[in-house]
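I am going through a labmate's work and have reached the protein record below. What it holds is a sequence and that sequence's fold in C-alpha cell form. Please read both lines and tell me whether the C-alpha cells look consistent with the sequence. Do not assume that whoever made the record got everything right. Thanks in advance; the entry in question is below.
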Amino acid sequence: MFTVADVPDRERYEVWKDSIACIFDVDADAETRREDFFAAVDASMYGPIMLARTTSRGQRWERSPATIARDGMDHYMIQLYESSGQALSAGNAEVEQPPAGLLVYDLSRPMTARSGIFTNLSMIVPRAMLSGLLRMPDDRHLQVLSALEPMVALLRDHMVSLKKTAPRMSATQANAVVPATVALAAACLNASADEVPGGEAGVTFASMVTARRLIESSLSDERLTPERLAHRLGMSRAKLYRMFEPFGGIAQYIRDRRLRRALLELRDPDFHRHPIYEIALRAGYTSETTFGRAFRQRYGITPREARQQSAGIRPAIASSGLDRRYEDWLNHLAV
C-alpha cells in the first residue's frame, strides 16, 4: 500500500502529487499542503481490473488533454465515495457525486473535480472489456448512478466485497471473478441509463449509432468529411450537424476520434516500429506537419513526445522506499 505516513511533513504533499500524477493532476491550497497532509492508496488487481481504495485531504483533480496524452488510459472508472463527496465538471456538464451511489468516468475524456477530505473506492476496467456490452459506450462520461437503483446497490456492494476479500484471494480466484464483475458493471450501467427512445427520437438514436460506426470504420480515409458522411447516411447536412452538436459538431467529433486513435497507436509498443507519418496516414492525415499541429493543439504535446512518454514507466518500488506498485499497475494498464 502506498502511504505518505512515513514521509517528512513538509514533503508529503509533493510526494503524493508526483505519485498520483500517473492518473490525475492534483492541486491543493497552501493550508491543506501544510496541515498534517495525508494520502494513501490500497490497490488490488483482478486480472486486468484494478480496485483501489484512496484516502486523502481535500484537493482539486484534473484529467486534462495533456494528462490523457501522457498516460494513454483508455478505461472506464467506476467510483464510490465512502466518505465525503465531490463536485465534477466536463465541458458544460456539472455533476455531484451521488451519496452512496456510483459515478462513471471515461478516462479518455477531460474532467475536473473538487473533493473534501475523503475515502473512495475506484474500479478501473479496460474499455475493450466493457464497451461492447454497453449501449452508447462513448456517452458514459460522468454518468451518475443513483444509490436508489437496485442494480447500483448490487454493483456497489460487489465492489466493497471484492476489496474486503482481496487479501485472501489467489491469482486464479481473482481472475475467475473478472467476467462476472464486468457483466454486473455492464448490467448496472445499462439499467441506469435512459431507456432507448421510440418514435422519431428512436430513429435519431439509431442514426447516431450508425453514424458513429461508420466514422470509426473510416477514420483512415482522408475523404471522410461531414458532407460525404451525410451522403452515405442518406440525411441532410443540417440534420447531421444537429445530431453531433452536443459533441462540439461533426467535424470536431471526427477530428477527436482520429487523434484519439493516433494517440493509442503512438503509445502501443506494437506500433513503435511504425514511423509517425504512417500513423498520421492511418488517422486520415496526408501531411505529417498538419497531423503534428492538430495533435499538439489537442493534447499539448507532439506525437514524438507522446511516443517517448509511453516508455517512461516508473519502477514498482521507488528509491524512496515507498510502495508505488499501484503506479506501475496503472501504467501497464495503459499499454
Summary: Residues 2-194+313-333 form a domain with the Jelly Rolls fold (CATH 2.60.120.10). The CA atoms of residues 10 and 34 lie 7 Å apart.
